[in-house]
Amino acid sequence: MLIRIALKSLLNRKATLIMTFASLLISLSLLFSIEHIRQQSKESFQSAISGTDLIVGARSGQLNLLLHSVFRVGNPTSAVTWESYASIKEHPRVSWTIPISLGDSHQGYSVIGTNHNYFEHFQFGRQQSLTFSQGHPFDTQFGAVVGAEVAQKLGYELGDEFTISHGTGGISFSEHEGQYFTVQGILNPTGTPVDQSIHVAFAGIDALHHSEPTTTTAAGTPDFSATSSSDHEEHTSHDTHDHEDDHEHEHENAHAHEHDAAQSEHSSISLDYEPRVISAFFVGIDMRAATLLLQRYVNTYNDEPLTGIIPGVAMTELWKTLSSFENILRLISFLVLIATLTGLTTTLLAAMKEREREIAILRAVGAKPLTIFALIQLEVLALILSSIVGAFLLIWGMLIAAQNWLMSTYGILISTNPLNTEVIQLAIISVILTLLIALVPSYMGYRVALTKGLTPRI
Amino acid sequence: MENQQSHDATLTLEHITFSWQNNKPPLLNIPSLQLERGEHLFLYGASGSGKTTLLNIICGILKPSRGEVFIGKQSLYGLSTGKRDVFRSKNIGLIFQQLNLIPYLSVLENVLLPAYFAHRHDKTIKERARQLLESLGFQADAMTKSASQLSVGQQQRVAIARALLLKPSLLVADEPTSALDSDNRDKFMELLLSEAEQHGTSVIFVSHDRSLAKHFQRTLDIHSFKDQAVC
To answer: What ipTM was predicted for this assembly?
Structure first.
């Protein structure tokens, strides 16, 4: 009955109620959706890599290494020699490795040189492996496997050919003209940077760097001085000198045969091809407990300065650097909530004046001052709870409507279910805050009940 | 306290004085006032004469500076505030000047409010509410109407039904007819007193309208309490 009275009393004040409900709905939706998106981005962030115990690159900061190896942001400052890679790979605790070579792009999508280990061992999300929606791993020198977003945005299908440019900017500095790559496989969407990547064989990457018409002679000996100077010009803007310089030195002997392969039809080549240098490699370890041991081994590796990072640890550090931004978002949404609750208090206080008579009647028929107090709290509770439910439904509906668009436009996969622990916590906090604020009018009602007696004044 | 006599007394006031401030002369001074079971009293008082104060004292809302109020044998101010609230809702029915009803509840719900706060949810009480409303001239379909759809006269009649629902020993009516025209006023008085008599309820009726005194056997001028007059 008390609930019934509370509800009917609320409905009796429809106009105010609707406005209060609307403002609560908006601010709660804002608060919850910011929290939800924060959660989701953190999750999608952390799902970018999984199952990898160690990422090894040339000596650099751990964020730097994480950003370019996993998120394809920025460029490696220097390279890792194949010898070091091969030696670490032989460490008894290492069960698998994925070498990768970065630094090229195609229409703004990064190109990764790698081998079949990538498709075999790379995991994202909750230890999910990569799967093909069409085709298979590359099996020729110029075969490519493209991520879901690349395929969709550029409209690539199996068998399509495209050229790869050097550098990672959207606008290429030098198209590696004449080096056509063929789409051999298309990956399923992962919601990670893999969707925006093009994977090719090491042999393909190396070939394209040495097949620029002006830099090679028919004899297969590169015009070394010309190449290095032009390379320098190109690379100062994206910090890949070492990598490229290494390439130049490396291929003086191997080049002829490689070049031939590149220029001839896209022949099947040995996928065991070993580049001289790589940018980084992912390591899987047979025993989790050995991770720190192996990390120390990498960090103190004698022949070359290397850095080994544990993805989870680096990810947490990266997220921390972003946390001031998310804190500002949270702060703003909290302020909006506070503003709304203040508005709610004003509305409630204004209503108390009109409700003196109602309170007097209830008192006269036997309601205790505490009952009046409870009645007002109950009304506010009904209001905030329905606003919360409304906010959840609103967010849910909007996410359902926007999910496909977000996925296709931004490659963000957002769960449509906004009910995660932290959002629920926020909901509970807002209920408590509201009830605390409602103490003011409730106490007023309580006082009115005590001091004004039973006679309603007109 | 010493003369808690007369077992049939519905209301007993003893040595009541009341003043808003301690050093001022008392607003009310009632050495003794008794209302027998079933006895009705017309209290005449102009506005500002302290009748609301007196009603609040009788209803257990306003503790007198001195003295005791008994409803039956129960000392009203001997109870804690909470218990007094419960006691009042069971033993005293109240009718106000106007706007007695909660507008967004139905007629029947308004009548049943005291039962709810007295924690009586049985069928008999619902039945009683219907009977009361029927005898006051409400058809079944009128009972589910929202209170705000009623005329003032109808609202005051619903207030009678509500005040009598829990068969209180005392009914306090504070100028309940002031918003009614003369036809409605007489009808209201008849209904009020006949219903009260049927249930053995005593009525204290407060008004500034002397013409209503004709309905009562006993009449008192509230001014008499200012001059320490005894009744």
So the answer is: 0.80
